[in-house]
Design brief:
Number of strands: 57
CATH topology of the largest domain: Immunoglobulin-like
Largest sheet: 24 strands, antiparallel, barrel
CATH superfamily of the largest domain: Outer membrane usher protein FimD, plug domain
Shape: globular
Mean pLDDT: 89
CATH architecture of the largest domain: Sandwich
Low-confidence stretches: 1-14
Structural class: mainly beta
Helix content: under 10%
Length: 756
């Protein structure tokens, strides 16, 4: 029996023809592989098939010569093959489901080479406002950034009044967990139908701004499969956002760059044979629902801050807890709850967000207990944002005894209030919006207002705006009509002429405005009105790297007032103290060591030049976002080596980043080298001179006369080696200090005693 089996195996082996064939899988060359040709079948190594991209290799397997082979005929119909005998090529066509699946993000998770930079820093902001000899106010803010924390406090001083302490808090960011802690004074919101409050206490919240490239909303994903090398073009709302090559197999595109509201995504796929396939899908992006499995929360507990006036800088009241927590149960459903609990009041209830194919819905309900009285309220809203039309509505009923933290501050809740809007774009650069709001108070009074607003760009720089409103306020009818035309000119400036009728008064006005530029420069605003008010205002503003200065004159009727405002900051970072404009956001210190006058840009806009020490403080950067900083290499003098001219950095929350653009003065050394062997001097022509420095080794070829040239070698003593014709000579090379770009040493000698 054993002899029979061995004989059959030898007979089968005799029918096998071994060959090296060029393997092509779904049009992609995979190199040469060893195959066995048996009758009308081809056996190929399982390892080679997997290296070619096939993830699932079923069929009939056989071990031959210690290697596992698979029959291609046994893989039909998912795998087809053609053997081109003359070209020695094996062409395999596999179903895309058997090939590797690739997933690509259509929108990257941040700019390339993004650096999260955090340096210790301190900031003192100040603002002085003068309104005459009897009115001078000083506002100051201290900010200290250390590691992941930011400590801040504000103080206001006014002539004739006691100092007023504002908000004092410590902020701690946990970027990996998308979490922010605040200890001290804080403003917190419990959610719809709960209210808000200033507290002195502790808050912990999910903070998505810590990772601004994190996708928190359920987004659209597109998938497909290709059998040959193909190209993909992705369009979102008729705008090309991605173009790339696809390998055979299945693919999925995630994180499409969608806008809030209705979106249209379209894939155009062209295969290797020129065939074109198009896939189109619509998607409504809701910014109120969360991605499945994602939590959003805010928990705050503390004592209510009574006031921010002179008599209550340190006055706190009763304890309060405010909390809101939502969870993404599905891509179209987010739900959670909200609550506020205090000594006098308890309020809470559920909140639900739904994403529909044609809009989004938010529903909330709340019950309250205040002074042993129960109350209830609800809120329901619907919003649809389209590319040419948008609509929305909100309705909120409440019982007379319903209370929130806001109503305790004297803000009464209406019995029923609602609003609705509709907006269309009938033509390009033209929009028409209709708004209506109405409230019924428990006193029986009804307030309502309907507004029609039309805006149209009638020329490249000319905008027309008109509105008409009709309503009921304090039991009297109100009718307003407005019309204006605005002309845009250079540097973002505008000139506006308009008129407004509020019965029975008609008022006309003219205004010219130029905003402050991003870098240094000036701005202004002048406005004149006729009618009963006879108002005239004018202001001039200027800001530079050291501060912002404003002079404003206002005249109403026969009364006039002049106001002067000076503001700025002192910033400590990177071992220096710098004067700057007021720092309200994050900032960076750009350093080009010892090179002054270098232009610096933020996101392609010039913001200033480095001082004589090579430093420039750049305020108003976005925290945790990729801010593109670059310098002009044209401003770096000749004789300097520039490491890099562009960096993308993300500074911390209201903190600073030290951004160094390394430049180094180039010091080169030239001379001749000889080898002394007693009285015999030889020239190591065509050899190599190698010098070891602190930053690495520097080498130079040796000319026919022994000449060499070494770059970036400053004054000092270095170990040097001469290599020539397979022999080496080591000696100490002394380079005297010099300010010249090229220092000429003359002739240096390697002693024969060091020759090997």
């Amino acid at each position: 029996m054993v002899a029979l089996i061995v004989g059959l195996a030898r007979a089968a082996s005799a029918r096998d023809q071994r060959a090296f064939l060029s393997l092509v899988v779904n049009g992609v060359e995979q190199g040469d592989v060893l195959v066995l040709i048996r009758d009308l079948d081809i056996w190929i190594g399982v390892a080679a098939v997997r290296e070619a991209g096939l993830q699932q290799v079923g069929g009939r397997h056989e071990t031959i010569g210690g290697e596992e082979f698979v029959s291609l005929r046994s893989l039909a119909p998912d795998v087809q093959f053609v053997f081109e005998e003359r070209a020695l090529t094996l062409r395999v066509t596999a179903d895309p489901s058997l090939l590797a699946s690739t997933t690509r993000a259509a929108q990257p998770a941040g700019p390339p080479e993004l650096q999260y930079v955090r340096n210790s820093s301190a900031v003192v902001n100040y603002a002085v406002t003068w309104r005459g000899r009897q009115s001078v106010d000083l506002f100051s803010e201290l900010g200290l950034s250390l590691r992941r924390t930011f400590l801040s406090s504000t103080l206001t001083l006014a002539r004739g009044r006691r100092p007023v302490r504002g908000l004092t808090s410590l902020t701690i960011d946990e970027r990996s967990r998308l979490r922010r802690w605040v200890v001290g004074d804080l403003y917190t919101i419990g959610g719809p139908l709960v209210g808000d409050a200033f507290l002195g206490g502790v808050s912990v919240a999910r903070e998505f701004s810590i990772q601004p490239y994190f996708v928190r909303y359920p987004s659209l994903s597109l998938s497909g499969a290709v059998t040959t090398p193909s190209t993909l073009e992705l369009y979102v709302n008729d705008r090309l956002v991605q173009s790339e090559a696809l390998a055979p197999g299945q693919f999925e595109l995630t994180n499409l760059p969608l806008a809030s509201g209705t979106n249209d995504a379209r894939m155009i796929i062209r295969d290797a044979f020129g065939n074109v396939r198009e896939v189109t899908q619509s998607y409504y992006l809701s910014t109120t629902t969360l991605a499945p499995g994602l939590h959003d929360y805010r928990y705050s507990v503390g004592f209510r801050r009574r006031d921010l006036g002179p008599e209550s800088s340190w006055a706190y009241g009763s304890p309060v807890l405010l909390a809101q927590h939502r969870y993404g149960f599905a891509s179209a459903l987010t739900a959670g709850g909200q609550v506020s609990v205090g000594r006098e009041l308890a309020t809470g209830g559920p909140i639900v967000n739904l994403r529909l194919p044609f809009g989004e819905v938010e529903a909330a309900a709340s019950v309250s207990q205040h002074e042993r009285r129960w109350g209830a309220a609800g809120a329901l809203s619907f919003t649809y944002v389209g590319r040419r039309a948008s609509v929305g509505m909100t309705v909120q009923p409440a019982t007379p005894t319903f209370a929130t933290l806001s109503t305790l501050r004297g803000v009464p809740a209406p019995r029923l209030e609602g609003s609705a809007f509709a907006s269309i774009q009938p033509w390009a650069r033209t929009s028409v919006t209709l708004q209506h709001s109405q409230a019924q108070l428990f006193t029986g009074e009804t307030r309502r207002r309907s507004t029609l607003l039309v805006s149209a760009t009638i020329a490249p720089r000319l905008l027309l705006v008109a509105s008409a409103a009709h309503g009921l306020q304090d039991s009297r009818r109100v009718r307003d009509v407005f019309g204006g035309i605005t002309l845009s000119f250079g540097a973002g400036g505008t000139a506006t002429l308009g008129a407004e009728r509020t019965a029975p008064e008609v008022r006309r006005f003219a205004e010219v405005h130029r905003p402050l530029p991003v870098g240094t420069g000036y701005g202004y605003r002048f406005r004149a009105e006729d009618g009963d008010r006879r108002l005239w205002t004018g202001s001039l503003e200027h800001h530079n790297r050291f501060g912002r200065y404003e002079v404003r004159r206002e005249r109403l009727g026969e009364t006039g007032q002049t106001t002067v405002n000076l503001s700025g900051a002192l910033v400590a970072i990177g071992g220096g103290l710098y004067a700057s404009r007021a720092v309200q956001n994050s900032f960076a210190l750009v350093r080009v060591p010892q090179v002054g006058g270098v232009r610096t840009y933020v996101n392609r806009q010039e913001v200033g030049r480095t001082n004589r020490y090579g430093d420039l403080l750049v305020p108003d950067l976005l925290a945790y976002y990729g801010n593109l900083l670059n310098i002009s290499d044209e401003d770096v003098p000749l004789g300097y080596d520039i490491g890099r001219v562009q960096q993308t950095i993300a500074p911390p929350h209201r903190g600073g980043a030290l951004v160094i653009f390394p430049v180094q003065r180039m010091h080169s050394v030239s001379g001749r080298v000889h080898i002394a062997d007693g009285s015999r001097i030889t020239v190591p022509a065509y050899g190599t001179l190698t010098v070891s420095t602190d930053s690495g080794t520097v080498a130079s070829p040796i000319g026919t006369d022994g000449g060499f040239y070494l770059e970036n070698v400053t004054g000092g003593r270095y170990s040097a080696t001469v290599t020539s014709r397979g022999r080496t000579c080591t000696f100490e090379l002394q380079v005297p200090p010099s300010d010249q770009p090229v220092h000429r040493l003359g002739t240096v000698t390697c002693a024969a005693g060091e020759h090997r």
